[in-house]
Amino acid sequence: MREIRFEHLGQILHSDADSLMRKMQAKRIEDEIPDTMLICEHPEIITVGPRARNDGITPPAGYDSTSVDRGGGLTWHGPGQLVVYPIVKWNLDGESNVKAVIALLEEWVIAAFSDLGIDGQRDERMQGVWIGNNKVCSIGLSFLRWTSRHGLTINCNTPPGRVEMVSGCGLGKDTTTSLAALGFNNSTEEILGALKRRVETLSRIE
Q: Which positions are annotated as active-site residues?
């Protein structure tokens, strides 16, 4: 069974979180700290992954952006979004490839949603967690010696129209949205509480 510590950062600049993640990843590799979930929120910014750069996909006008080294394309960050960064050494059975780790994180979010009466699902169009035809959770990781950095976002009650304007990896505008926009009035605190109660999901693949 994997033991995971949750560390709450509050609202933090993405650049500061990125620096902290790198330091903690190095410490986790050397077993100086336990597996840790960093919990935070960022002021509005779009992170641009290598897939977006390679495909020539750029953020829309009116958004600040920064390049990152996690997998994936464009990801919106801002108020009303729960950000979870797993600084985790993935060394349990069944965690031998990126797809398996992504599947664990998806199952974790789906299980937490289910406890709150939200029907989250996977979708072949893109990794993450979807509700019907809309994506509300994005996942993108970076690994060093099989220890992760970056992580996942859940759009709970984001400003109307902001995340919806960001087209990630060809999905098109309005595909990514928030729980609130779909009629689910769950706060970030409620979602985080459900994730903590379901954290054992990250110790196995069912």
A: 169
